[in-house]
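Q: Sequence in, structure out?
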Amino acid sequence: MDFLENIREGLRSIRTNLLRTVLTSLIIAVGISSLVGILTAIDGIQSSIDNSFAGLGANTFDITEGEEMGIRIGGRRRKVFGPILYREAQEYKQRFGFGATVSLSTMVTGTAQIKYESKKSNPNVSVTGVDENFFAVKSYKIQDGRNFSANDISNSTKVAILGAEIATNLFGTTKPVGKEISVLGSKFRIVGLLERKGNLTGGGDDRQVFIPIETARQLAGTRSLSFGITTSVPGLNRVELLMDEARGLMRLIRKDAITQEDSFQVERADAVSQNFKEINEQLTLGGLGIGFITLLGASIALMNIMLVSVTERTQEIGIRKSLGATPKRIRQQFLIEAIVICVLGGLAGLVLALVFGNVVSQLISQGTASFIVPWGWMIIGIVVCVIVGLLSGFYPAWKASRLDPIEALRYE
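A: Exactly. Output:
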């Protein structure tokens, strides 16, 4: 009996015990779907993060106020640096050259309630003052209406641009451009509507109202605001160099002493994305661990079923040996059966994993994740199926090949 005939014999045996084959394959399918499904979901979430930060560009960096770092060893508190003042932010914008585009912004409040006629939003809306460069630098896309003009900024015009979620909550399917809303007790005319961005933290990018930065200063009254600075530089290879230039300029503007640490923070826009990638790497390791445990249980179940199969087919093994089948051919037949069962289960598991992983990533990312077909993980999944089949089928195949043909023929 040659090798191909041995394969055909193994497949015939699988067809003869179709129900047992299907049930065993389902065990493997669950193991593979848990492994590849978790990894697909993680890849999908990462794609959502990449999509969210891709618009910001790797050639931008932010300057924000320094944060209090808590208590040092010995009980001495770290110095709490003051906010970045409007005067300082404007001076930076005027003095920083290098062909860069600089945008200023400030958060007026994160707990505003927006009103339109009798409708009200939840009191969790962010009101942000921005200049005319903000939407281009941050890659917000205006779906309807227009951007703020230089006159809107300089004249402190009471106009607003809405995030998608606020517009939907207050206006439904009606176009909001041209309507008037109440923001912090003042009337604002809507001049623009932003495209939906989505956000892993709950849609925060779409739950914002933007107003001209000079208007924001007036709304704040005597309250001190801290201003953020975003700089977009031409050329990716110049980012690190110009970040150092920006750091030096801000130290001069804020009069930081030579021995003093920076009283502000400078961070690349894609730094957060890199942090998420590191977290995803840890999640991937966790997913591999969970998948390994599940596959271990599936392989034990497969080995048990293959041992039962050997017991049930003892007489068949005796007949084949008496007709000249060698122990090697017997081992091959049972190993082929185990591998085919695993591969069938693996293919079914990959289909389940593809659906499960993408559905989970879409739910977590609120529909911003790309549809992922993880070819790498799928290939690894098939290879794992073959390895599981070999490991699970080896002992039953070895046991079958060691049977004495005389005793096997007399077995009932």
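DSSP finds 13 helices and twelve strands in the chain.
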